[in-house]
Design a protein that fits this description.
By secondary structure, the protein is α/β, with parallel strands linked by helices. The protein has three domains: 109 residues, 2,3-Dihydroxybiphenyl 1,2-Dioxygenase, domain 1; 125 residues, 3-Layer(aba) Sandwich (Rossmann fold), CATH 3.40.50; 170 residues, NAD(P)-binding Rossmann-like Domain (Rossmann fold), CATH 3.40.50.720. 30% of the residues lie in helices and 21% in strands. The chain contains 15 helices and 21 strands. Strands 17-16-15-18-19-20-21 form a seven-stranded parallel β-sheet, with helices on both faces. A six-stranded mixed β-sheet has the order 9-11-10-12-13-14. A four-stranded mixed β-sheet has the order 1-4-3-2, covered by helices on one side. β12, α6 and β13 form a beta-alpha-beta unit. α4 runs parallel beside α15. The termini are far apart.
């Protein structure tokens, strides 16, 4: 049995812009004066009438708490509450309103065990060393280094800490070793009067309020350099997968559809001798570009100034770059200047049939506009390791066959993640000892 929930509205156009354009629901059926939208198993119908109905609640259900937090950041302008736990119903949710004033609920049903268990555990309670809050367990070599130098209060569950857990855990900490998914702002810093160092287990640090840290005399460190080659490897995995349609071809074969060679079966694009465009010619961008020589590719890049490189590459302005590159790969940090660097106009400038790879940060690209161009085929394919509202991935993106979607694993090799952990530990240890940290940002 299937069902549709219908509402009356006096402004069908405004609701179309909201539910399809803003929330990203798919238009399932257009009957002129009545539009029906689809989100997973939910179908919502809105019909043009002289009177508007706003009774009831439209609830959108999601699989985890982190997605609710990400959606709250995305939809803050329509939110009427912050995300919070409701212990009566064991749900984590926030409220919002649509243009007609209907109540919208974005919700996650929490398993009883998850709701009850405290994830923070003191790993070496006999230690008298400075306290460090570790927001998720690291590879064993890094864990041993931390326990030798700190009393380690660690999140032992395989999930991000909730906001209240982070605030409680950092209360007496002198050091915080955190992840990109941990939002470390002035509230967190004010909750930790003893805090001396925030060591981020990542190269990027857009999750940390640098101005707030600087004002409070708290050092901020990151892990550059050690993950360049691993991220470059993964970038090339995305390039080859998108260009040659590896994943749909693999699924086709596993499902038993392969009955023999055919001239038009899973035609893709050549990588050999294609033009590779790099946006962000830093360590990772250069590592990706070096690998292009084996494919006989011409490398172009866009940057504020010429780079001294040990391989042939041509610097061009962004507009020319977008028109020329067959494959574009992003390798730059997320800042106010790079947010939506590839917006509507820039995506339209891209060469028809180009491939876009993003292993940097999701908000560098206007994800909704990119999806439209992937749907109509103007952009041939895209490879994602990061997303605009991570970990939330729009349903329209999930349904596309010309994309490869990965769960932010650019640096996920055993060797690299261990090196990152050791560098993050070394940063925290150095600051606590009053020494120079290997990779300090502020």
């Amino acid at each position: 049995m299937a069902g549709i929930i219908f509402f009356k509205t006096q402004n069908l156009k405004k609701l179309a812009d909201f539910y399809q354009g803003y929330l990203g629901l798919a238009l399932w059926l257009d009957q002129g004066g009545c539009h029906i939208y689809e989100a997973g198993n939910l179908k919502l119908g809105f019909c043009q009438r002289e009177k508007t109905e706003t009774q009831g609640v439209i609830t959108f259900y999601y699989p985890d708490r982190a997605t609710i937090d990400a959606l709250y950041q995305k939809y803050r302008e329509i939110a009427t509450s912050e995300p919070r736990l409701n212990p009566d119903y064991n749900i984590y949710h926030f409220w919002a309103k649509d243009p007609d004033g209907r109540a919208l609920e974005f919700q996650y049903f929490m398993p009883p065990v998850e709701a009850a268990k405290n994830p923070l555990e003191l790993l070496n309670p006999q230690s008298t060393k400075p306290l460090l809050l570790l927001t998720m367990l690291l590879p064993e070599a890094a864990m041993q280094e931390l326990k030798q130098n700190f009393r380690v209060l660690a999140n032992t569950q395989d999930r991000l800490l909730r906001r209240e857990e982070l605030l409680a855990g950092v209360k007496n900490a002198e050091a915080l070793l955190c992840l990109l998914g941990d939002r470390v702002d002035s509230e967190v810093m004010d909750a930790a009067p003893k805090l001396k160092v925030i060591s981020n287990y990542a190269v990027g640090y857009n999750n940390i309020d640098l101005d707030a840290a600087k004002a409070r005399g708290i050092a901020v460190c990151n892990t550059p350099g050690v993950l360049s080659e691993s991220t470059a490897d993964l970038t090339w995995a995305l390039i080859m997968n998108t260009a040659r349609r590896i994943l749909p071809a693999e699924r086709f074969t596993r499902e038993g559809h392969f009955v023999g060679w055919k001239p038009l079966l899973f035609l893709g694009k050549d990588v050999y001798r294609a033009k590779l465009g790099i946006i962000g010619m830093g360590r990772i961008g250069q590592a990706v570009a070096r690998r292009a020589s084996g494919f006989g590719m011409k490398v172009i890049y866009t940057a504020n100034s010429e780079k001294t490189l040990d391989f042939p590459a041509q610097r061009v302005e962004l507009a020319e770059f977008l028109k020329e590159a067959d494959i574009i790969s992003l390798h730059l940090p997320l800042t106010d200047q790079t947010r939506y660097l590839l917006d509507t106009a820039e995506l339209d400038m891209m060469k028809s049939g180009a491939i876009l790879i993003n292993t940097a940060r999701g908000p560098i690209v206007n994800e909704a506009e990119l999806i439209k161009r992937l749907q109509d085929g103007r952009i041939y394919a895209a490879g994602f390791d990061v997303y605009e509202y991570e970990p939330h991935i729009p349903q329209e993106l999930m349904e596309l066959e010309n994309v490869v979607l990965l769960p932010h694993i650019g640096s996920a090799s055993i060797e690299t993640r261990t090196e990152m952990g050791l560098l993050a530990a070394a940063n925290a240890i150095a600051i606590i000892k009053g020494e120079k940290a290997p990779a300090r940002v502020v």
